[in-house]
User: Which sequence fits this backbone?
């Protein structure tokens, strides 16, 4: 069963500045809650581009997991998509969209569609997992403005 989450964050910065922050993969470590133990294992520096694969380690509920992401869409300043190739979800597709509202204002939209593993049993964990995913994105939206200096 597919699930989704959508968040928006408006920042008083040009679209290119906001996108540039996300074009640096190491910033993902800075905006992810520390209790997840998120760590990029792909050698740095990472140059973001279409068809790039990035490896991570993450800790969920005490379990150390490996996660591999593919970037199938890379449209600088406008959007990119990351898809889980290997990891804790059956499917994870995260679209990052950046829209200029004005010359000094950008709306950032995160839209994630995901499926839990072990259907139908995995769906029993949906309330817990969805709550955690929402909390992760709330944390991101708190961290991003301060890291961008706004």
Assistant:
């Amino acid at each position: 069963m597919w699930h989704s989450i959508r968040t928006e964050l408006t920042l008083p910065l040009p679209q290119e500045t906001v996108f540039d922050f996300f074009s640096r993969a190491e910033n993902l470590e800075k905006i992810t809650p520390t209790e997840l133990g998120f760590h990029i294992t792909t050698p740095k520096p990472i140059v973001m581009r279409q068809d790039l694969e990035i490896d991570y380690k993450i800790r969920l509920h005490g379990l150390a997991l490996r996660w591999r992401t593919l970037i199938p869409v890379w449209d600088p300043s406008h959007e990119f998509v990351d898809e889980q190739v290997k990891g804790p979800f059956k499917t994870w597709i995260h679209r990052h969209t950046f829209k200029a509202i004005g010359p000094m204002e950008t709306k950032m939209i995160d839209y994630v569609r995901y499926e839990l593993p072990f259907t139908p049993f995995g769906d029993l964990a949906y309330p817990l997992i969805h709550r955690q995913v929402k909390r992760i994105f709330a944390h991101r939206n708190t961290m991003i403005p301060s890291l961008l200096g706004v």
